[in-house]
Design brief:
It comes from Magnetospirillum fulvum (Rhodospirillum fulvum). With 231 residues, the chain is an alpha+beta fold. The protein has a single domain, classed as Pseudouridine synthase, CATH 3.30.2350. Helices cover 15% and strands 32% of the residues. The chain contains four helices and twelve strands; from the N terminus they run αββββαββββββαββα. Strands 1, 2, 3, 4, 5, 6, 9, 10, 11 and 12 form a ten-stranded mixed sheet that branches. The longest helix is centred in the middle third of the chain and has 12 residues. The radius of gyration is 18 Å and the shape is globular.
């Protein structure tokens, strides 16, 4: 991304926090075989500070939307404690294939991360895994798909993707947990909104939301998403 492009993705900024609209397809940091990642583009987000902002949490490479950055060490420590105690509210939108068993509910299904020969690592529901809790509500449906809002209450890797598959409605475009290991469409998962408690007593909570990218809009509209939600 150019400096102008990353600056255009700033959803919220104050002296402690930046909320960024992360594009789908871009990893948040370097990893095995990853040469292009978000941390390469953070320099324009200093806004006069001596260091780049840093990640307060992660989004999968193929997930778009709200990503929280801390601008200095003190803010990052506070944000870290908030994530550990599940005080930061995260809202995701997805398009799923099929329907969950009820229009709304909570799934509590432990998740285990493992490596499988020939497939790499993956996450599955397993009694030996870590506690994982996700609330969901169906917002619309159409054409064999449904539009679901997810609110994860824990922060496990691939939590929404694994829980959706376990409910019988895998995410559209999910090559790992979905029905097609080589999908023709991108992963339809979007970090729609975040709410962060005040970092100091004199300040209000931070709220930011992010419109879905073009790649998700056709399926969301098919499921009844109103135009006001997809500007």
């Amino acid at each position: 991304m150019t400096p102008d492009e990353i600056l255009a993705r700033v959803l919220y900024r104050d002296q402690d926090v930046i909320v960024l609209d992360k594009p789908a397809g871009l990893a948040v940091h370097a990893g095995p075989g990853t040469t292009d990642h978000l941390e390469l583009y953070l320099d324009p987000l200093r806004f006069g500070w001596s260091q780049n902002p840093r990640l307060a949490h992660r989004l999968d490479r193929d997930t778009s939307g709200c990503l929280i950055l801390g601008r200095h060490d003190k803010a990052l420590k506070r944000l870290g404690r908030m994530f550990e105690t599940h005080r930061i509210e995260k809202v995701y939108w997805s398009v799923c294939v099929g329907l969950p068993p009820q229009p709304r509910g909570r799934i509590e299904a432990p998740l285990l991360k493992l490596s499988e020969p020939g497939r790499g690592w993956r996450v599955r529901v397993d009694p030996a895994g870590q506690r994982a809790v996700t609330d969901w509500v169906v917002l619309g449906q159409g054409g064999g798909l449904c539009w679901v809002e997810w609110r994860p209450r824990t922060g496990r890797t691939h939590q929404i993707r694994a829980h959706a598959a376990h409910l019988g409605c895998p995410l559209l475009g999910d090559a790992v947990h979905g029905l097609d290991p080589a999908p023709s469409v991108p992963l339809h998962l979007h970090s729609r909104a975040v709410t962060i408690p005040p970092l100091s007593p004199s300040r209000p909570p931070i709220e930011a939301h992010c419109v879905p990218p073009m790649a998700l809009r056709a399926a969301l509209e098919l499921c009844g998403a109103p135009g006001a939600a997809l500007p």
